[in-house]
Each structure stands twice: as structure tokens, then as C-alpha cells.
Design a protein that fits this description.
Elements (H helix, E strand, L loop, with lengths): L2 H52 L2 H39 L1
């Protein structure tokens, strides 16, 4: 056998032995990529759910701001009510 035939034979043997292993590695890589794709889809759905459930926080913050203003007004009304109460009590004593 000449050198060219020997080289072709070696290449053929290596190809026959290595090709199934390469195909197996490619298949495992493809399965891993599908798994990663599925995980990303689940993460996206979870992220959309979290975003949907937290969008009401802005409205809640607005409500807290309005409630703080109402508390300030209520405190002012309470002070004015105490002043009216004291004034009316004083006038009532003067009339009696």
C-alpha cells in the first residue's frame, strides 16, 4: 500500500470513530440550548407577572400622598375645633 492509501484509511477510520461522538456532542448542545430557551421563556413570563403585580405601587404611593395631605387638613380642623370649643365655652360662661 502506498502512503496516500494509508492516509485515506487512517482518515476514514478516524472519521467513522469520531463522527458519532461529534454528533452526540452536537445533540447534547442542541438539547441544552432548548432547555435554556425554555428557562428564558419561563423567566419572561415570571417577569411580566411581577411587573403586572407591582404596577399598582405608583397608585398606592399617590394614595399615601393624598392621605398625608388629608391628615394635615384634619389636624388643622381639629385645632380650629378646639379654638371654637374654647371660645364658645367662654361666651357661654359669660352669658350665665
Amino acid at each position: 500500500m502506498n502512503t496516500v492509501n494509508i492516509l485515506w484509511l487512517i482518515l476514514l477510520i478516524v472519521t467513522v470513530l469520531v463522527l458519532p461522538y461529534v454528533v452526540r456532542l452536537l445533540h447534547r448542545t442542541w438539547l441544552a440550548s432548548r432547555s435554556i430557551e425554555r428557562y428564558f421563556k419561563e423567566m419572561k413570563e415570571a417577569g411580566i407577572g411581577v411587573a403586572g403585580n407591582t404596577e399598582h405601587i405608583k397608585a398606592l404611593n399617590d394614595t399615601i400622598g393624598v392621605a398625608s395631605g388629608i391628615l394635615d387638613v384634619a389636624g388643622s380642623i381639629d385645632e380650629n375645633a378646639d379654638t371654637l370649643k374654647t371660645t364658645l365655652a367662654t361666651r357661654a360662661e359669660k352669658i350665665n
